[in-house]
Design goal:
There is one protein chain. The protein folds into two domains: 14-138 and 323-441, nicotinate phosphoribosyltransferase, CATH 3.20.140.10; 198-318, TIM Barrel, CATH 3.20.20.70. The chain is 38% helix and 18% strand. It has 16 helices and 19 strands. The strands form four sheets. Strands 13-12-1-5-3-17-18 form a seven-stranded antiparallel beta sheet. Strand 12 and strand 13 (338-339) form a beta hairpin. The two termini are 48 Å apart.
Length: 443
């Protein structure tokens, strides 16, 4: 079962509360609709992977102010007693439509829309931008790594350098959605049911009198589940030592799973290590590699003929090093019975409650999207991507399992042409605006 720790309604920016207090004082309480979308692509990005919806809905269903929250807000001196009394009974009662987690989407497309009384819709802005934005950022980075790896196994090694424990957990979950096979984060394994994986550190090797002794002792403890780190002293000698221990294990009916490289010219070293293992009669022993990998380094090392079966992908994926944020925004698009549009230069948004329609060809491959109005009709070869997931503040759909979300991504990614997945220089995916939406945009 997926577990999320709820943050409470104070996870919001101050101006959300001061605006809410002013709305309350002046009885501005009509329904409003807000769209959550990404304005622009970061460098070399050409698509996004929707992630974070499960946590978002979980948070919205319990978006309340505790007595301690009210006491704190009172202590600021910014809010009157009538507004604080209103907050005591606050509950999110809105409707949410969203793309399922794992869905591929593109800039300007609403990944989520909220329709709720204005104060409610306003107060959840920070939560939505933070939760959907971060997890979408990481899932997208992880998907690029998956594409670069060309079928090789990827494992999340990012926990120790992400910005905090919560980020590490979300990185493990988001990268698993995008196709990573496992995580080194044991807590993420427990909370989300993600397979866990790990090898050994250099400190383990140096704790023994010599390298071969460290391998032997580890194999005694884990005769069926050993991966030896072979670059502590000399990678080639380490590979030979690993092969010798592996052969001893084989005589006892056990098997070495693999060896890990963590430094040096890994393309060249991996070929040399592969030859040592193969010559020793150990073709099934895998070669793992770690240290500074992301989609760029993975693609480069494969291009250079590396004999690597799996990559531990850490820091650069876990912080999305080349693109550490998304230009994700949450804008009011309708209030009362009027469509709303921000017209600031460079920040224009599409008005009205919307739907995203995806056109597919005869083989089910994505051929183009159209952003239209919520109630527009679609043709037979189009799919409406935004689904109602919450009504009256209650989750109305059965939450998919993490493995089901993972399958949603895999289906989506397989239907996206490789021309749009290139790590550098990808073709722009066609996204159009419907005539009806264009008409109200130009009014």
């Amino acid at each position: 079962m997926t577990t999320f720790q709820k943050s409470g309604a104070l996870f919001t920016d101050l101006y959300e509360l001061t605006m809410a207090a002013a709305y309350f004082d002046h009885n501005v309480t009509d329904n409003a609709a807000f769209s959550l979308f990404i304005h622009n692509y970061p460098k070399n990005r050409n698509y996004f992977v929707a992630a974070g919806l499960a946590e978002t809905l979980n948070e919205l269903a319990d978006f309340t102010f505790s007595d301690q929250d009210i006491d704190y807000l009172k202590s600021t001196g910014l809010f009157n007693d009538n507004f604080l009394s209103y907050l005591k009974g606050f509950k999110f009662t809105g409707t949410v439509r969203a793309m399922p987690e794992g869905t591929i989407f593109f800039k300007d497309e609403p990944v989520l829309e909220v329709c709720a009384p204005l104060i409610e819709a306003q107060l959840v802005e920070t939560l939505l931008i933070n939760t959907i934005g971060f997890q979408t950022l990481i899932a997208t980075k992880a998907a690029r790594c998956i594409h670069a790896a060309k079928g090789r196994t990827l494992i999340d090694f990012a926990s120790r350098r992400t910005q905090g424990k919560d980020a590490a957990l979300k990185v493990a979950r988001s990268s698993y959605i995008a196709g990573f096979s496992a995580t080194s984060n044991v807590l993420a394994g427990k909370l989300y049911g993600i397979p866990i994986s790990g090898t050994m550190a250099h400190s383990y090797v140096t704790a023994f009198e010599n390298e071969i002794k460290s391998f032997e002792k580890y194999a005694e403890t884990y005769p069926k589940n050993s991966v030896f780190l072979i670059d502590t002293y000399d990678t080639i000698e380490g590979a030979k030592n690993a092969a010798n221990v592996a052969l001893s294990m084989k005589k006892k009916g056990n098997a070495l799973i693999g060896v890990r490289l963590d430094s040096g010219d890994m393309a060249t070293l991996s070929r040399q290590v592969r030859k040592i293992l193969d010559d020793a009669g150990l073709p099934d022993v895998k070669i793992f590699a770690s240290s500074g990998f992301d989609e760029y380094k993975i693609a480069d090392i494969i291009k250079n003929g590396a004999c690597i079966d799996a990559f531990g992908v850490g820091t650069k994926m876990g912080v999305s090093a080349d693109a550490p944020y998304l230009d994700i925004v949450y804008k009011m698009v309708r209030f009362k019975d009027k469509n709303i549009q921000k017209r600031s230069p460079g920040k224009i948004n599409l008005p009205g409650e919307k739907q995203v329609f995806r056109q597919t060809d005869e083989k089910g491959r994505f051929s183009g999207d159209t952003i239209g109005l919520k109630n527009e009709t679609i043709t037979d070869n189009m799919i409406a991507l935004l689904e109602i997931v919450m009504k009256n503040g209650r989750i109305i759909t059965t939450p998919p399992s993490l493995d089901e979300i993972r399958k949603t991504f895999a289906r989506n990614f397989s239907c996206l042409d490789d021309a749009y997945k290139k790590i550098v220089g990808a073709a722009p995916y066609p996204v159009m605006i419907s005539r009806q939406l264009m008409k109200i945009q130009n009014n």
